[in-house]
Amino acid sequence: MMERHLLSGVEPDPARDAGHPEPPPRVGFFTDTSVCIGCKACEVACKEWNAIPEDGLSLTGMSYDNTQGLGASTWRHVAFIEQTVSEETVPEPQGRTQLPLVDGTAPAAPQEAGETTRWLMSSDVCKHCTHAACLDVCPTGSLFRTEFGTVVVQEDICNGCGYCVPACPYGVIEQRPSDGRAFKCTMCYDRLSAGQEPACAKACPTESIQFGPLDELRERAALRVDQLHEAGVSGARLYGDDPDGGVGGDGAFFLLLDKPEVYGLPPDPVVTTRDLPAMWKHAGAAAVSLLGGFALSFALPALARRRGTR
Amino acid sequence: MSELQGRRERRGRQGRRGRRGRRGEQLMVPEAEFASYYGRPIIKAPSWSATDIAGYFFLGGLAGAGSVLAAGAQLTGRGSTATAMKVSSLGAVSLAAAALIHDLGVPSRFPNMLRVLKPTSPMSVGSWLLAAYGPAAGVAAVCATTGRLPRIGAVATGAAAVFGPAVASYTAVLAADTAVPAWHGAHRELPYVFTASATAAASGMALVAGPVRESAPARCAAVAAAMAEAAAVRAAEKRLGMVAETYRQGRAGQLMRCARWLTAAGAAGAAALGGRSRTAAVAGGLAMLAGSACTRFGVFAAGIASAEDPKYTVVPQRSDAPSDTRSDTRSDARPEVPTCGPHDHEES
Ligand code: SF4
Ligand code: SF4
Ligand code: SF4
C-alpha cells in the first residue's frame, strides 16, 4: 500500500515525489480577487493561446457572468457576484473619484440606510492541488504531475473514462462532449517549458493573477491579506494557501472577500483519496464477509440435513 | 454549526440560495441555509450513463458473487446449480465489460486501462481484477458446459471464486473514491451494501436457474443478504446525516424503496415456499435480482442528486471544522450574536 503521506497531509515537494529527480521550484498562481476588474482578459487569453473550442453562447442573467463555470472548454472563469452589504464593508475611496453606480433612477435592489452595493469578481482556475484527486484516480496515467508541480492531462492517453470528473473536489475537470476526453488548465505547460508565464497571468491588466514560485506567492499573499485587514476590509481571507488543508494546499490559491461558497468554491475540500486506505480495508472486509455468508449458507443446510437424518 | 452559519448568511441578496428576506423571519426558518454561486453545483457529477455504470455495478456483483455460489455448489455436489451459476457469471461479466467499454469517451482506447497498475485508482485496480477474473469465469463456464478438461475447470472455478468477491466489492470503492457527497460520505458502509446486494443477486439467480432440490443454500443466502443489505443501507444513511436525504427523495428514493421491498419480499417468499414450489423459487429469485438492480440504480441516482445540489457539498463541509480559510475578524469560530460587528455585512 502507498505511504499515507502521499495521499494526504503536508507534502513539500510533489514534483520530486512524482519521480522528477531535480525539479525546478514549484510554481503556481496567487489570484488576488480584490483587484480583479472582471475584464475577462484571462478567459480570452486562455481560449486563444490553447485554441479551446467555443462552448456555447448564452445570456445567463448571472450578473456579467455568461461563462457560468469551469469546464472542458473553459479553463479560466470569471465569477461576478452582486451583493448588498453594509457601507462599512466597502473601504474608503482614499482619494479616488467615486462615481455613482446607478444614475438617479431607483436602485435595482431595495437598499436600507447604511447599505451599499458591492461587486465581487474572481477569476477561477484549476487549483493544481498538492494532492490531486483527479490524478490519483486516473486509471490510464493520462493525468500526471509535471516537473513544475502542476497537474496536466495527456490528450493522447486519456480514454475518456470520466473518473477524474467526479473525483475533483472543485468541479474543475470535465469531458468534452464532442470528443469524450477530459480537459482542464495545463498551467500553460508549453509556455512554462519555454520559460514563459501562463497566458492568463500575462494578459491580466491588474495583476490580479500573479504567477510565480509558490513559496514566494504565499509570502506575498500573507502580506496582502494583512494590508487589506488594516485598510478595513475585514472579509479578506486566503483560500487554498494552507499546506495543512484537505488537499495539501492548492498550487493556485486565492484571496477572497467573502466565503468561498459565495464564489462557487467548496468551503473545506478534502482529497477523496485521503480515505482510500480505509475504503480498501472495508472493501476487503466486505469481500470476506461475502465469502463467509456463502460458506454459512452452504454449511447450515448441511448441518440441518445431518441433524434431520440422525 | 451549520444552522448558525446559515443564519449569518441569510442576508446576501445575490448569488445566494435560500435567502429569506427580513430579519423578523430569520429565527423562524430552521432548515440549514447556505450560500452558493447562483445555486450552481460545486462539484461536477460524473457523466457516466446510469444504464452503463449502475448496470455495471449490478452485473459485476451478480458475476462475482455468482462465482462463489458456483464453487460452493460444485463442492457440495449441486452440479446443475454450479453449471448454471458459471454460465450466469460469464454472461454477466461479459455484459459488464461491454457496458464499461461502451461508457468510455474513447472506447477504442479501452486497452489504456491496462497501461499502468495504480493502487490509488480503483478503476485501474478494477480493470486488472476484471482481467484476471473474466478469463477464469470464462474457462469455468466453458469447461462446465462442455464437460471437457474437468481439472482445469475446477482450478478456474476456484480462481473465479477467489476474485469474485473482490469484483463484487471494489465497485463500491470506485463510487466512494470521488467527491460525490452521497458516495464518499458513505465510503465505509458502501462496500457492505454492494456485497450484500451482490449476494442477493447471485442467490436470486440460483433460485431462478437452479433446481429446487439444490436451492437450500441459495435460500439461506437470500435471507442473509436481505438482512445485511437493509442493515448496511441503514448504517450508511445514519453516517451521511443530512446527505442521506438524497437516498430518500426523488428517483433515488423510489429506487431504494423498491429495492427494499423487492429484496425483502423475494427473500421471504423464497425462504417460505422456495423449497417446495418451483414457481415460488423463480418468483422469489426474480424479485431478488430486481431488488439488487434497484439498489445499484438507487445508489447511483443518489450520488448524482448529491453532486447536482451545492447544498450537499457546502453544508457537510461547513459542519466539519473549517480549515481552508485564514483569519479574518469574522472568523467562523466567532460566537453567533444577533447583532454584528461594524464590518459584518451579512447581518447589517
Ligand atoms: S482542482 Fe481538480 S482538476 Fe485541478 S488538480 Fe485539483 S483535483 Fe485536479
Ligand atoms: S477521463 Fe482521461 S484523464 Fe480522466 S481519469 Fe479517465 S483517463 Fe484519466
Ligand atoms: S494557465 Fe494557461 S491553460 Fe491555465 S487558465 Fe491560464 S491560460 Fe489557461
CATH architecture of the largest domain in chain A: 2-Layer Sandwich
Count the E strands of chain A.
10
CATH H level of chain B: which superfamily?
A: Formate dehydrogenase/DMSO reductase domain
User: What is the 3D shape of chain B?
Assistant: globular
Q: Please give the CATH class of the largest domain in chain A.
A: Alpha Beta
Percentage beta strand of chain A: 15-25%
Derived from helix and strand composition plus strand pairing, the structural class of chain B reads mainly alpha
Cα end-to-end separation of chain B: 20 Å
Give the low-confidence spans of chain B. Answer: 1-30, 321-348
Helix content of chain B: 55-70%
Radius of gyration from the alpha-carbon trace of chain A, in angstroms: 25 Å
Work out the largest interface and the residue count of each chain: A-B, 108 and 105 residues
Tell me the fraction of residues in β-strands of chain B, as a range.
Answer: under 5%
How are the SSEs ordered, and which strands pair?
The complex is a heterodimer of chains A (310) and B (348).
Chain A (H helix, E strand, L loop, with lengths): L13 H4 L9 E6 L8 H10 L25 E11 L28 E11 L7 H5 L5 E3 L5 E3 L10 H4 L6 E2 L6 E2 L5 H5 L5 H5 L5 E5 H17 L6 E3 L12 E5 L19 H34 L1
Chain B lengths: L1 H8 L13 H4 L23 H26 L3 H25 L18 H25 L3 H27 L4 H4 L5 H20 L6 H25 L9 H24 L4 H31 L2 H9 L29
Bound molecules: iron/sulfur cluster (3 copies).
